[in-house]
């Protein structure tokens, strides 16, 4: 079993807490295990899925260690969930509907039609999606892919599309369906804040951590993210309303739009001829995130609960099975309705109780400590916080309504982390004294306090070796006790980086396909967020682009702000530094850094009027994002 060489055993307090979890919950309930294995048809003969260059992007056997009893270094509830998620292979959901599970963070669903197979959510990476499709064909025959559906705008549900479908298939008429707004949200989320999200996702999913009882054991929603190539084929069919019906390859589907739930653009769909309901990522076997730890827009649990109620009303009486793009299905109409209504009550309860306490003056931190789920919900395994948590979800609700400020004026203008840390450490008697006292807290099992207080030492003195060791030890113990997979991964990745340095960013979603899907407006916006404002407060640059066969857009860099538009209405176009007429493909290459501005004038299809130095100066005021920024130290 691969282990982090610096990992320590579990402390007595963690051992006792994990033992209490074993006593508290019904670990003898095998319903989920039975469901997770139901319909199993086989798995891939080769456990390693590789990229073209031979690099391993997924290992089907990496989690074989989960077959053993849960050790002291893992929360038994998370160990159980990870064991269920590690079941991999091809599974029959119902006649004509199959799922590939355990080949990536998400599931790929395949629905058989009259001529071929329709693919729902083709995983995160092309390599794992292709392997899943090959497994399906090994059992069901060489059926062509006759269409694809993206249920929502997160990369693990569209990124592997080029492993199952090509541009030539789309040109021949294979449709790509998606909910209204999909493309805008899919590309903007992964580009505008993509660098920061991907860096934090390295912590959240723990893909670079060693797999094992003291390392990464899963992420709650699935095991981890594959590290292959991420792509995107833009949708050709837009789902714009609930009740819309589409037929592809003889497969009749009825859609329910659910914007603002688990993703800004999302849908559920019903197969009336097969009495099957796909819940996308709106109802899975865990409490989901209202604000994912990697970062995203805050989700709305109020509308989430309402859409779950609507799904029950629309499809509950006509669904013999409900399945999703993560985890395993639920069979039987009574069980389907009970599952969906339990999920509905889960999100509604967190929303309503957070608002109740918020209106009594509680802060986000206080609410997170106070709210507990009702016993009936807590007893259901599918409400446990393996991916989202009651703690960080209630903080997300607070943030949605009131923002970051808790109303206390003492918190209105606090020092930033490094400056505050230096003052704290000085007040507490210096770094060595803080570490000495923190070691006593560690011995008492107060790991939360150790992590909180030693952080100040690290931000005041990042090279304090004993503080780094102690902080790593404390984060590790917090990870060992976490029921939430992403919390465990965050804690253990922090410990790993303190001991061994950065894990980097194993999976990058800012791929050529996603960049190609950006509109020209979005490309200009992506430049604007890279402008180093203080460095160009005095700059005054205007560059006009005239797109061959299209419109014209002018960029203005003034007051440290990059704006764009057809006309300012101020007559400012008379002050243009340069006008460049060029094809859209050349403009994209320029804005994405693939073409040097100095090379433009030599191109036959480009016409330059004015001084290209203005464009060079403008681009020179852009900062490059840092994909490996520090997290646990300044």
Describe it for me?
With 634 residues, the protein is of the alpha+beta class. Helices cover 38% and strands 15% of the residues. The protein has 21 helices and 21 strands. The strands form 4 sheets. It has an 8-stranded mixed sheet, with helices on one face. It has a 6-stranded mixed sheet with strand order 11-12-13-14-15-16, covered by helices on one side. A 5-stranded mixed sheet has the order 19-18-17-20-21. Strand 8 (145-149), helix 5 and strand 9 (176-179) form a beta-alpha-beta unit. Helix 8 packs antiparallel against helix 9 (333-358), helix 13 crosses helix 15 (447-460) and helix 14 packs antiparallel against helix 15 (447-460). The chain is globular and about 75 Å long.
Q: Could you give a quick summary of the protein structure above?
A:
Helix content is about 40%, strand content about 15%.
Summary keywords:
single chain; 634 residues; alpha+beta; 21 helices; 38% helix; 15% strand; globular
- How many DSSP H or I helices? 21
**Envelope shape:** globular
Strand tally: 21
Kindly report the spatial arrangement of strands forming the biggest sheet: 1-4-5-6-7-8-9-10
The whole-angstrom Rg is: 26 Å
The secondary-structure class comes to alpha+beta
Strand content: 5-15%
Mean pLDDT: 95
Largest sheet: 8 strands, mixed
Low-confidence stretches: 568-572
**Span of the ends, CA to CA:** 33 Å
Q: What helical percentage do the residues reach?
A: 25-40%
């Amino acid at each position: 079993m691969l282990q982090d060489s610096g990992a320590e055993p579990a402390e007595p307090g963690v051992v006792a807490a994990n033992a209490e979890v074993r006593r508290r919950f019904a670990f003898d309930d095998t319903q989920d295990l039975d469901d997770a294995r139901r319909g199993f048809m086989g798995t891939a003969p080769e456990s390693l899925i590789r990229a073209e260059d031979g690099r391993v992007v997924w290992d089907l056997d990496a989690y074989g260690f989960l077959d053993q009893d849960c050790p002291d270094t893992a929360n038994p509830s998370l160990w159980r969930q990870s064991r269920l998620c590690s079941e991999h292979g091809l599974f029959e959901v119902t006649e004509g509907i199959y799922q590939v599970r355990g080949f990536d963070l998400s599931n790929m669903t395949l629905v058989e039609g009259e001529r071929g197979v329709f693919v729902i959510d083709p995983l995160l990476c092309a390599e794992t999606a292709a392997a899943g499709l090959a497994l399906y064909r090994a059992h069901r025959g060489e059926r062509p892919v006759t269409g694809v559906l993206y249920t929502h705008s997160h990369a693990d549900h569209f990124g592997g599309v080029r492993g199952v479908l090509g541009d030539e298939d789309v040109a021949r008429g294979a449709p790509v369906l998606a909910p209204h707004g999909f493309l805008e949200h899919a590309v903007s989320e992964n580009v505008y804040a993509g660098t920061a999200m991907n860096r934090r996702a390295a912590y959240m999913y723990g893909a670079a951590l060693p797999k094992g009882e003291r390392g990464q054991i899963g992420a709650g929603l699935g095991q981890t993210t594959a590290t292959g190539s991420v792509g995107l084929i833009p949708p050709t069919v837009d789902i714009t309303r609930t009740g819309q019906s589409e037929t592809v390859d003889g497969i009749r589907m009825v859609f329910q739009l659910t914007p603002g739930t688990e993703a800004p653009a999302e849908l559920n769909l019903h197969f009336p001829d097969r009495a099957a309901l796909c819940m996308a990522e709106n109802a899975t076997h865990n409490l989901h995130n209202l604000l994912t730890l990697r970062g995203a827009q805050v989700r709305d649990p109020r509308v989430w609960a309402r859409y779950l109620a609507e799904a029950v009303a629309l499809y509950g009486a006509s669904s013999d099975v409900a399945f999703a793009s993560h985890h395993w299905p639920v069979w039987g109409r009574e069980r389907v309705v009970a599952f969906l209504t339990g999920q509905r009550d889960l999100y509604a309860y967190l929303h309503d109780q957070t608002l109740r306490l918020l209106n009594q003056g509680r802060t986000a931190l206080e609410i997170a400590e106070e709210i507990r789920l009702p016993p009936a919900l807590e007893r259901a395994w599918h409400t446990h916080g393996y991916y989202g948590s009651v703690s960080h979800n209630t903080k997300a609700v607070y943030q949605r309504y009131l923002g970051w400020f808790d109303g206390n004026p003492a918190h209105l203008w606090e020092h930033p982390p490094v400056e505050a840390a230096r003052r704290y450490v000085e007040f507490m008697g210096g770094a060595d004294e803080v570490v000495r006292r923190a070691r006593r807290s560690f011995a008492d099992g107060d790991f939360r306090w150790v992590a909180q207080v030693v952080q100040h030492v690290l931000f005041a003195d990042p090279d304090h070796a004993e503080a780094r060791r102690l902080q790593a030890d404390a984060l590790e113990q917090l990870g060992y006790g976490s029921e939430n997979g992403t919390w465990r991964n965050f804690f253990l990745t922090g410990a790993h980086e303190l001991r061994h340095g950065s894990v980097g960013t194993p999976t990058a979603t800012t791929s050529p396909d996603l960049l190609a899907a950006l509109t020209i407006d979005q490309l200009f916006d992506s430049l604007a967020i890279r402008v180093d404002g203080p460095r160009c407060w005095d700059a005054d640059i205007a560059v006009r682009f005239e797109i061959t066969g299209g419109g014209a857009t002018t960029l203005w860099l003034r007051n440290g702000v990059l704006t764009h538009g057809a006309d300012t209405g101020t007559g400012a176009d008379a002050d243009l530094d340069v006008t460049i007429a060029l094809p859209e493909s050349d403009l994209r290459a320029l804005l994405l850094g693939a073409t040097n501005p100095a090379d433009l004038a030599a191109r036959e299809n480009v016409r330059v009027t004015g001084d290209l130095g203005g464009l060079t100066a403008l681009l020179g005021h852009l900062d490059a994002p840092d994909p490996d920024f520090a997290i646990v130290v300044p």
